[in-house]
Amino acid sequence: MTSWLSLAWAVPDLQRPFLAVPRTAAAPEIDGTLDDDAWESAGCVPFIFQRGSFRPESQPTRTFFTWDDESLYVAFDCAEPYPDRIMYRRTKPDVSGLDDDDCVQLFIQRPGMELYYRFVINTGGHVYDEHHYDLEWDSEFRGAAHVGEKAWTAEMAIPWTALGGPPEPETPWRANLMRHRLTEGDRFSQWSRTDPEVRKPHQFGYLQFVNRAPVIHRLELGTELPGLNRLSAHVVSPAGDAQLRVHHAEGADGTTSFPLPSGEDREVTVDYPITTRSPEKLVIELADENRTYFHQPIDLAVTPLISAAQFDRSMVQLAGKAAATEDETFRAALNRLRDRGQTILAGLDRVVTSAIDAGQTVPREEWEEAAGPVLAFQEMTQQPVLWTQHPLARTRPTTVPGDVNRLEPIQIAAAVNELEAGALLVRNAFADQDVDLRFEMGEVEQVEGNGANPLRRAHIALCEALMIPTRAHGVTADPVSPLGKAGVIHVPLDQTREFWFQVDTAGVSPGLYAVPVHLHPLDYEAGVLISSFELQIRVWDFELPDEMPIAVYNFDYTRALREHPDHRTDQLRCRTTVFQVTGIPNPDDDGHADFSPLNPVLDQLPEDGQAFMEVWFMRSRGWQPRFEPWLRKLVRYMNARGLGYDRWFLHIFDESASEDFEACATEIKRIDPQVRISTTHMAEPERLEAFLPLIDIWIPLFRHLDRPELETMKATGKPVWMYDCGTTPMFATSRHRFLPWRAWRYGLDGVTLWTYSQNNWNDLPHESNFGQFFRAADGGTVPSKRWVAWRDGLEDYLYLVLYEAELGKLGKPTPEDEALLEQARELGAEDPAEVEQYHEVRTAIAERILELRNSK
Prior knowledge:
The chain is α+β, with helices and mostly antiparallel strands. Helix content is 23%, strand content 29%. The protein has four domains: 14-211, Immunoglobulin-like, CATH 2.60.40; 308-380, no CATH class; 385-524, Immunoglobulin-like (Sandwich), CATH 2.60.40; 551-786, Glycosidases (TIM Barrel), CATH 3.20.20.80. The protein is built from 14 helices and 42 strands. Strands 1, 3, 6, 7, 8, 11, 12, 13, 16, 17, 19 and 20 form a twelve-stranded mixed sheet that branches. Strands 22, 24, 25, 28, 30 and 31 form a six-stranded mixed sheet that branches. Helix 1 (308-324) packs antiparallel against helix 2 (328-357), helix 2 packs antiparallel against helix 3 and helix 11 (733-745) packs across helix 13 (815-827). The longest helix has 30 residues, at 328-357. The radius of gyration is 40 Å and the shape is elongated. 42% of the residues are buried. Mean pLDDT is 93; it is low at 1-8.
């Protein structure tokens, strides 16, 4: 017979365990007790692992292998501190449910065969075999078991004839081991990890059948802490100049060896270091220069585990990213992060080196404290960069943070009955490719307050501020669209995306709420980890009223009353009080008109809403003979609809103080003086005088409010509103938010904005792009940031009203209040401030309202 010992072999797969199985001179007696000489020199798997990991099970299972020309012999030594709890229900051999008991199993696959064999034995010594689900197959293998005080043992003898014949030299077999233990729950352990399905031969370990080999019969890993560790083992019958090796790091210095003189049977110890350079797995080997006899990867038990290899990759990546970025602030932030990482890792290395020099390990608590900053750095450079800014600030794909740190909680504060948002910016800075991520929000915790209607996840909408091309600002985030139910987002490599948490506090009880948020990668191969942070929502203990004390109007061209329900919802959430009606039928040659097409439009007018009736036919020649019957019929029609003169008015000329406008307005007042007329023009003094008896609603441009004509308008006792036309994507969101502040500063009766119309998604240079929303796929609306800013400004106005009411109760404002009021007045000046300033002053006002209410 050929001497296999003279032949060299290598481990087929370094990720899988390997065992050389020596031949026995005498077959063991199969009686369930391991007292035969055959087991003293048998190959041994010293422990098997918790299912799902490469960590030894707490109650070890040792498995012995040996063979001769007739059979493969396998023995199991199963530690069990609770033998009286052993589950032993199957009392007949070859029963398919035998593996439901406390039992051990062997899976083995002959080289060149696709199928495998399975052998099971329970604590009663009853056996079961199968050939890859062939339940009728019978190997005629023998088995026996014995239950002792601290362990139970079992033996198997499997004839080679059942396995296709004896093994051939240099040809490894695939094999796996499994134990089912029921005394402390339903626990499974195995030799080679195959989770979740165990029947995966391509993931089995390897057996190599040899004439003789050194073997390890006991293996203990020691404390497994950073520093100098001690592995102990019982090694039997080493052949030649074998060594026990521990691979604890990459490179030539990453292996510690202990020589085993030939012919000895002894206890050995190996001191080996665990450092920041240690990989996730230790590898234990028994080998000589030519061949390996035992190979076992084991998960490193150090917690937290520091990966210097990952750290090194991060250092290289940070240097590359810093060199590539054009933003000096971001470059400095990346370099600061890199310097910080080098400093904290060097400090941790000093702690470990000191322990090794002293022949010790670092105590677990000390390690956790020292490793924490390094772990945080590792996580930081394996996650998207997250930061927050005001949601109405401008964001582009190139937007970068001023620093790279762990995200602090995103904080949102709002009164009851308000819509408010917080923004999260996500930059794909450290992955190797585009990444797809998924938001997941946990349950809402009420930290403060105990109202009957606490905030719930249903009150929080997750949105994306989508990037679109614009002529004025390049690609920028403007449409704010709800994310799909899955919460999946796409962030291209080295780009930034913006996401909103929009909170609706209508009916919510005041208090402080906390929501855990997790950002999961869809594919971990992209090189990013889970990011987690907290959303904190403060609902102040006061409520914004449903109704505005001034008129609020958007030129919406009857969308709110005629088109998709989203338009009406948009206007009502902004507390709009005036609604535009266009498409009013013109008179025929006799002055007659059928107004019934307006019925479905006016049906949608809120009970307290006014109708802005836009009519242009008076601008054409020949309007006078047709006008009087048309107007009288319109008045009768509106009255029949229950709409008195206070519920509607005519807008007949736009931005004009022309003689034609004066003539038309004069004719209207002659026919019916109660019909109201509006104007969107602040004329020169001489022309203004002509219109004073004709105009019922003054709507000057916001930039003209510092002219003396404003006081002339106010002196009429008629409402004075104001308007602006700055709604395109070229205008900053601050311009939209500041308009209500300006109306408050000048004590106006209303505020309007042209125009509530749709934007073009692609902002074509040959098309006008005025508007505050983007058309949705279903015909509804996707609001722009500018529309949200308009709504926020109107809510700001309500804060100012509530503040003034509290000051009225106080009698005289304090110096602190005077200063705060002056800040508010400055925000209504002619030029809009930075958008963050409105938020800051509004927050100060909210806190002052609470102070004043609580002081009573």
